[in-house]
Request: fold
Amino acid sequence: MEPWESLVIGAGQAGLSAAHHLLRRGVRTVILDADEAPGGAWQHRWDALTMDDVHGVADLPEAAAPPRGAARANRAVPDYFAAYEQAHRLDVQRPVRVDSVTSVGDLLQVRAGERSWLTRTLVNATGTWTRPFIPHYPGHELFRGEQLHTAGYPGPDHFRGKRVLIVGGGASAVQFIGALAPITETLWVTRREPVWREEFDGEAGYQAVQMVQERVLQGLAPQSVVSVTGLALRPQERRAQELGAYRRRKPMFASIEEDGVRWADGSYEQVDVILWATGFRAALGHLAPLHLRSPEGGIQLVGTPGAGQTPTQTALDPRVQLVGYGPSASTIGANRAGRSAAAAVVRLLSAEPEAALG
Ligand code: FAD
Reply:
């Protein structure tokens, strides 16, 4: 079968944006997505998360995102994505979980179980939701209580009457404390001192994105954009603040025991639940056969010419674009990256094959 000109893996914000720009530029593209239904990671977020709780969902190209309000984010955003796929005739094949991508001469071979596709270029938009990160602490396996990660957060009611230790210094931890401290006993630990801001200003966000961008241009592992913008309390977190719930216990505990956690100085806290709000890593295991990692531990991206372009092209294989990765790991960044990736694909497809791939 004739190879595709481009193949997009993942149909969250990043994949939909990339697919839209590719198709608009006339690139013959196929989109594969592992989920049963439209919505990317948003369909898996907890029921209690409303559109008022999220930091903001950027508009996909040419379509206004759902407004703020009391609607459940795990319904409103998937409905928006589903309507977008239909309106823009994005033919997403699902559920298709890609297992591997290998290089076959000038082409890339994408495999999912028994099925496979050949393509000249690839846009990877697989997000992070499927790779929750939990740091290792001695005694992890001894704990008899419950351990949960953000990816499996069941909503506040589950925690009533339980003593909950929340681990992590990002936006999710701040939200969980805001929801849980008014209804049950909470403790908070973070590895680093949190940086507080009065509110999110555009300049801080811009600086954060630049910092992460610098890292990926050097081949370093990206830090999360959100983790470097700093933390701000919103009205729905004021009650927890009044209760003193944002006073963190420091430093981090040294080990986990059967019923709680112990610090290096010997002190001990009994807890019923450890809630790991410790973030996610990029879900890129299927790209391992391409050996895209640099010795610095990340995947180096190269800048694309043109003002406002987000780096998406991998330094070691120009056929592969990463969107929703590093500096573009936010809904607004994912949108921009989709456009940059499509431009890079078009440049590559129109170049001489030897020049483009060499
Ligand atoms: P996703 O939405 O995760 O989409 C990835 C898609 O790839 C999925 O549909 C998945 O099925 C598919 N996929 C994964 N692996 C494979 C595979 N091997 N084969 C085929 N398909 C695959 N950002 C904001 O801008 N505003 C917010 O308010 C906000 N809130 C957040 C709240 C939480 C709890 C978290 C964890 C993140 C939040 N973010 C927010 C970050 C934001 O979610 C992301 O930057 C953005 O939505 C991710 O879009 P994406 O397309 O990169 O990934």
Observations:
- The domain at 6-130+280-357 is CATH 3.50.50.60 (FAD/NAD(P)-binding domain).
- The helical segments are 13-24, 73-87, 171-180, 202-217, 225-228, 238-242, 331-350, 353-357.
- The two ends are 25 Å apart (CA to CA).
